[in-house]
Amino acid sequence: MASDQDFSLLLTALAPFLAAFVAPLVVRFVGRYAGWVLGIVPAAIFIYLAGLTGFVSDVRPLAAAYPWADGFEFSFYLDGLSLVFGLLISGIGTFIVIYSGGYLAGHPHLGRFMSFILMFMGSMMGLVMSDSVITLFVFWELTSITSFLLIGFDHARQASRRAAMQALVITGGGGLALLAGLILLGYTAGSWNVSDMLNAPGLFEGDAAGLYLPILLLVLAGAFTKSAQVPFHFWLPNAMEAPTPVSAYLHSATMVKAGVYLLARLHPVLGDTVEWNTILPVFGGVTLLTGSILALRQTDMKQMLAYTTMGSLGMLVMLIGVGTEAAMLGAILFLIAHSFYKGGLFMIVGTLDHETGTRDITRLSGLFSKMPVSGVSAILAAVAMAGFLFTVGFYGKEEIYKIITSGNPMDVLVVLVAIVGNALMLVVGVAIAVKPFFGPAIETPLSPHEGPPSLIVGSLILGILGIGGGLMVVEFGDYFAIPAAQAMLGETIEGHLHSLLDFAYLNWALLTLSAITWGLGLFVFFFLDQTRALLRRVAEVWRWGPDQGFDQAMFGLLRGSARVTHFLHHGRLELYLILIFVLLAAATIGPLYGPPILADLAAFFTGTESQALYPLMWFGLSELTFYEWAIILIALLGLLAVVIGRTRLVAIVSLGIQGFAVALIFMLFGAPDLSFTQFMVETLSVVILALVMTRLHLDQRDSRVLEEVVRDGGIAVLAGLGMTMAILSVLSHPLDLRLSEFFEQTSVAVAHGHNIVNVILVDYRALDTLGEISVVMTAGIAILALIRIRTGGPKLGIGVPKKAGTGGSSRKSASARKSASTRSKSRAKSGKATA
Amino acid sequence: MEHALAALCGVFFTVSIYMLLSRSLIRMLLGITILGNGVNLMIFTVGRLTREVPPIVPDGLVQPATDIANPLPQALILTAIVIGFALFSFLLVLTYRAYEELDADNTDTMRLAEPENPPSPPLSY
């Protein structure tokens, strides 16, 4: 069913996983060139996808499906939106793999790192190309797990472990909500494939209308946690504990955009409703403002970038929430531009950190002459980030500002928020391009020099792409942005991107808005230090945030589980046993007599006849002979004496009485073998008990107070009654004797033994008997060990041993016991021999 | 007559459970022994009773001539008795050693594995 083309589509998701398997080996063999070698895999994927560009954007989406479980299939789908994401993932991934090779050169776990990164890449490729929502979810969770592994890569540091755990808990929790949402969506649509949902208009009309809001909220919970929207944003800045290539790749360019991707993908299915157009812009706008303001507070350049990433994700969510043609086109252009410059800026910051030993923006200055290539890359990235003329970001910004032309007050507000957010993010971009590279040179922990090619090539090329894409905006739009925006919108879009040089289409009003953005941004930039100081003072007053709340929640979970464990595992044996026996009584009495007794009570109160309790009354007592009666009486007497016996002699003797009574019962009802064994075992038990009891003192009386006697007695009587009833119930059904008859008929003919019981033991169930002997032997060894541990082994160190040096006679009794066990076993065999 | 033995089994269970619920180790040990006897008796009873005819094929015959006692429960019980004895011996020595080391035969005072106030879990990552 899958043609060659289809299989290669699957391979794009599979190849990185295969590469991940061999990555540690590759690192071992080629050492410092591992990045360049492994980079071939994402580069090949990129080239393959690039070759499909015209085909996908002009002709039709590609699809491939492979059967999986019953009713499910791994179905893949490549349209304009998937293609843009796929190209970004594989393209930036190529540079990241190369960069990692240089950044972690000589690290003992480079192989492991490469493996994680490639696994992540495969998960991400699978995620953006999934058609089935189940497949999508599987890859979605894989990205969470690989992200966990990568953030916690430096697992010796507690901050890393905390950040990794936090990311996993937040995104994993969102993932669970997403799963519920996707399953509901799949049932509503009657298909697991997104492509089918897109072609099912009016999905939420009629009966399914009530399901829309739950599905939307569940899906949003997944997308918002993944894409770090307020109030789930805090894991993203903390994730900067990861090595810089991870921050550049997962936490700016790709993984955090998975939530945005999901929203974009499902917009044609779930979008264009009041809920969608309200919830998304509100959360997105708040996230944009929060992120871009908090970014100014930081001096660690990675933290600054992390907060602007969060702001950018807010911007994207906000635009998808608006959901118009301009918003979608603006969103995709912004997303592409952001991936270029943010990936590049992270790599530059990593290089600065790597070569100078610090990434504190206040401690770096005047490095341009020492690190010219990084400086140029940083300027290119900052220009793109600011959205200056002729960049991809510029055209994205123009499209965003075009939303205002609708005149809707909500849209005006969105554009105002976008202007402020853009301006503040511009500040960060310009600061990172200017502060470390220009001005007077200052001392840094390491003597600075330009990084090796692997560290600078990626950021340079991404910087050039951010500008170059803008210079060829018409082609760029036709091939990438517009097909993707169409997929997001679910409608056809006329190409309307025109080069800035095409003066006929120049919109002076929008250009003015851009100019306001730049002006505002540059204004804040010149007062950056003052702004930062102001924000820090605010932060000192307002200490509490969701990050601290996370700690409280996690610690609360630990404390709560400790409390629950302590409540259930209280360490009081008799309470555990009470629970067991109460349940035994309930389980035996309940099903047998519960409903009839309830009916009986009901009948009593309603005054009708009842007949539920009659089976209790009949024991067939008259069938017994007088000597059988006598033996039962002896057993009862023995049992009574065990309960009330106060001295050890009474206890031992009464134990023997009930045991012998049982042996006599066996004897009377045709079981001489059982009877012999029982006699022997009871005799031995009494002898051994008597031996040990001379060293043990039995409390003169039961320590239980009256309430406990009543409680325990009540439970015991109920459970005993229940067992009796269960036996009576069994007896009221016919017995299946097929197996017994088989043994009776074949015992002599096949096994040549006349004593059927012994034949069963040593022939038909010989392996069981072997197991039984093993149990007895093991018990004997364990007894021996228990007794010897005192003389040979170390002290337990608890309590004071009561009497020392009593080992001799105990050991004797143990060996007596052991030989006794063996004897009782050999009897079964001799029984057969004599028969 | 099965019914009378069913009632006797109930008494065995009652007594053994009552003994098991006492906190004294020796009494619990007695309870376990009685429980074993009760279970054996139960298996014996539900396999139906036949008076005085053991499941043995007389010499010279290939199959039993008359109705004999059901051999299957007997085989099961025979195994159970021996294993029950092994368990009894082991528990007895365990009790004895616990009594020696801890100077206590009350389960409430044996809290080494599950202490009264367990340490709280470490609150860190």
Would you summarize the structure shown here?
The complex is a heterodimer of chains A (835) and B (125). Chain A has 33 helices and two strands.
Number of strands of chain A: 2
Q: Name the assembly state.
A: heterodimer
**Rg of chain B, alpha carbons:** 22 Å
Q: What is the third-level CATH name, the topology of chain B?
A: Helix Hairpins
Any idea what the CATH architecture of chain B is?
Orthogonal Bundle
Percent range for helical residues of chain B? Answer: 55-70%
Query: How far do the termini of chain A sit from each other?
Result: 70 Å
Beta-sheet strand percentage of chain B? under 5%
Average pLDDT taken over every residue of chain B = 86
Class by alpha and beta content of chain B: mainly alpha
List its salient traits.
heterodimer; A: mainly alpha; two-stranded antiparallel ribbon; 33 helices; B: 125 residues; Helix Hairpins
What does it look like?
- The complex is a heterodimer of chains A (835) and B (125).
- The longest helix of chain A has 34 residues, at 573-606.
- In chain A, strands 1-2 form a two-stranded antiparallel sheet.
- Helix content of chain A is 73%, strand content 1%.
- By secondary structure, chain A is mostly helical.
- Chain A has helices spanning 4-30, 34-38, 40-51, 53-59, 80-103, 110-129, 133-151, 158-189, 194-198, 212-226, 235-238, 244-253, 257-270, 274-297, 301-322, 325-356, 372-386, 392-401, 409-434, 453-471, 473-489, 508-526, 528-541, 546-568, 573-606, 626-644, 648-668, 672-693, 706-731, 738-746, 756-764, 766-792, 807-834, and strands at residues 62-67, 73-78.
- Chain A is elongated and about 120 Å long.
- In chain B, 58% of the residues lie in helices and 0% in strands.
- In chain B, helix 1 (2-20) packs antiparallel against helix 2 (25-46) and helix 2 packs antiparallel against helix 3 (71-102).
- Chain B contains three helices and no strands.
- The relative contact order of chain B is 0.13.
- With 125 residues, chain B is mainly α.
- Chain B has helices at residues 2-20, 25-46, 71-102.
- Chain B has a single domain (2-52, 69-108), classed as Orthogonal Bundle (Helix Hairpins), CATH 1.10.287.
- Chains A and B meet through helix 8, helix 24, helix 25, helix 26 and helix 27 of A and helix 1, helix 2 and helix 3 of B.
